[in-house]
Design goal:
- The chain is an alpha/beta fold.
- It folds into 2 domains: 60 residues, Roll (2,3-Dihydroxybiphenyl 1,2-Dioxygenase, domain 1); 57 residues, 2,3-Dihydroxybiphenyl 1,2-Dioxygenase, domain 1 (Roll).
- Helix content is 17%, strand content 39%.
- The chain is built from 2 helices and 8 strands, in the order βαββββαβββ.
- It has a 4-stranded mixed β-sheet, covered by helices on one side.
- A hairpin with a 5-residue loop joins β7 and β8.
- The longest helix is centred in the N-terminal third of the chain and has 12 residues.
- The chain is globular, with a radius of gyration of 16 Å.
């Protein structure tokens, strides 16, 4: 039986651009960077109030380019106040790609597009 989730990997073409997006737009912090035994460049991002990390992986030169299929997967983050968070994103030059949308559970969701075609869901849980 597994013990706990440690990280989720996103493969990208531009490691620096992706890390900068998650730092600037969402306030994630860079925990560490290194080169894998197979030559991939790796960056691990920490999220507030979570033990799990997001691993951003750029394969070595010559590897096939990453093409993210639409709506294949996304990361979801909880925010306290979606309206205020969206206003702060806009101030930083980022725009929501969808929402805010109320859900049947009373939560409100919205999306922002990350580099490489990945989506990020923002969730304000019902109070």
């Amino acid at each position: 039986m597994v013990k706990k989730l440690l990280h989720t990997r996103l493969r990208v073409n531009d490691l620096a651009r992706t890390v900068k997006f998650y730092q600037d737009a969402l306030g994630l912090t860079l925990a560490r960077r290194h080169t894998s035994p197979r030559g991939a460049q790796l960056a691990f991002l920490q999220t507030p109030s979570s033990d799990e990390e997001i691993e951003i992986c750029q394969m070595p030169p010559g590897a096939p380019a990453v093409v993210v299929q639409p709506d294949l997967m996304h990361l979801a983050f909880e925010v306290d106040d979606l309206e205020a968070f969206a206003a702060e994103l806009a101030r930083k030059g980022f725009a929501l790609s969808d929402g805010p949308t109320p859900t049947g559970s009373g939560s409100v969701i919205a999306f922002i597009d990350a580099p490489e075609g990945y989506e990020v869901e923002l969730i304000q849980r019902a109070k």
